[in-house]
Amino acid sequence: MYNTFDSSRNGSDSMAKGARGTETKFERENELAIREAREADRMEPRAQTIAYDARRGLVLVELRSGFAFGFPPERVGGLERATAAHLAKVRISPSGDGLHWDDLDVHASLTGLVVDALNLADWAPRLMGQVRSAAKARAARANGLKGGRPRGSRRSRSAKTK
Predict the structure, then answer these.
(1) Are residues 21 and 52 both part of a single domain?
(2) 113/84 Cα distance (integer angstroms)
(3) Distance between CA 32 and CA 38 in Å, rounded?
(4) Residue 140 in contact with residue 149, Cβ under 8 Å?
(5) Same domain, 111 and 82
(6) In a domain, 147, yes or no
(7) pLDDT tens series, the chain, 162 aa
(8) Domain residues for 76?
């Protein structure tokens, strides 16, 4: 007869290991999520304050970076016919990216509004050197026929690994 409280026989030891393994996995995932959130905070616009200016007809957002951004409410679906009183009842999500008009069930992404307002999808790739052009396409095809992108010299490769 064996003791039911003997961990080596009833599997409780393996359950404890499983719980520790899950906790460790959770901690790793949590750390990764925290790093990703910090990176997003560093790169993306985040709202600090928000208000509706009825005189100007603009929703004004002060960013954590110190810049300010304003947009006409009709640029957000669901706000086209909203009253000034409804527009004034806006809140910022804890992340600083979400703008919420709960009474109207309207939610908008600050990042999306900035991208739309500045037309970033069209001009930012050019600024960053990611333009697709006929010349680049020809060069890529020519390199492909030669076996791919030209290899760098030994010296440039070893410098990159240091």
Answers:
(1) no
(2) 20
(3) 10
(4) no
(5) yes
(6) no
(7) 434 444 444 454 444 455 556 678 999 999 998 888 788 777 788 999 999 999 999 999 999 989 999 999 999 999 999 999 999 999 999 989 999 999 999 999 999 999 999 888 887 777 777 656 777 778 777 777 777 666 665 555 555 555
(8) 47-118
Tokens describing residue 121: 């999808």
Q: Is the dihedral of CA 33, 34, 35, 38 positive or negative?
A: positive
Taking the C-alpha atoms of residue 52 and residue 71, their distance in angstroms, rounded to an integer, is 10
Strand order in 106-109's β-sheet?
A: 91-92, 98-101, 106-109
pTM over 0.90: no
Query: If you search the block for the tokens 């600050």, which residue do you land on?
Result: 110
